[in-house]
Amino acid sequence: MSLYPCTKCPISIKNSTTQFPHPRAPTSTKHKISYPKSVISQISLSSSSSQSHQKTRTNGVNSEDNFPTMSEIMEASRSQNLDLQLKTLGPFFRITAKSLKTQRDLGKAEGLIRVWFQGKILHLDSIRLQRETLGMEKSIFGIGLFIGAVAVRHGYDSGCQKAELLAIYDTELYHTKLVNFYTRIGFKTVDQVSGESLGDVGHMLVWGGVGTRMDADIEDLLVKWCTRFKRKS
């Protein structure tokens, strides 16, 4: 449908004589073009959307410059006498942590890159620490943080936007520590899986147990951790 008014008008001729304007005084006709309000709204929204998209891209570039790289995370772990190894097989991955001093296994994490209709998701199946490390004051907030950082950076490099996990309910004390740890590093509780409702069946089949379901935005995690792992200039 045309947005312009019709410019075709009937021509009136009197006495078979056509009158023309004086050549030295040309006349001009100005047509006022009016747009429907819906079109004006679309133009305004399109302009705002373009500016918003440009601003988002700019902010994203600035944030990415502050994300800790995988090499920076590994370097920071070695400064804490931790040897972290990442191994992948297709969408699956495993991260192991050893002591550089004793070569003892201190913990590991397993998961996969899950493809979903909304995009890729970092599915953290488990983060386990050895029993002897649980007595260490910084085992959860130290070793666990390094293992989690490697997993999250791997998810980001694989194109994931979200991370998901289940803080497994093993014992009340350990479960509380896990929830506090994940909350502290940026995860948010989305569901409680107790096994007492029909809706919990799907979660239990996926996660293999009960506990607290938690999600996090991967870029938010990397920004939150940047001061911990980025090299100080």
Would you kindly provide a written description of the structure presented here, covering whatever features stand out?
Residues 45-66 are annotated as: Disordered. This protein is an alpha+beta fold and 233 residues long. The chain has a domain at 70-229: Aminopeptidase (3-Layer(aba) Sandwich), CATH 3.40.630. Helices cover 39% and strands 26% of the residues. The chain is built from six helices and seven strands; from the N terminus they run H-H-E-E-E-E-H-E-H-E-H-E-H. It has a seven-stranded mixed beta sheet with strand order 1-2-3-4-5-7-6. Strand 2 (92-99) and strand 3 form a beta hairpin. Helix 2 packs antiparallel against helix 3 (139-157) and helix 3 (139-157) packs across helix 4 (172-185). It is globular, with a radius of gyration of 31 Å. The chain starts with 36 loop residues before the first helix and ends with a helix. Residues 1-23, 25-33 and 35-58 have low confidence and may be disordered.
Brief characterization of the structure:
The chain has 233 residues and is an alpha+beta fold.
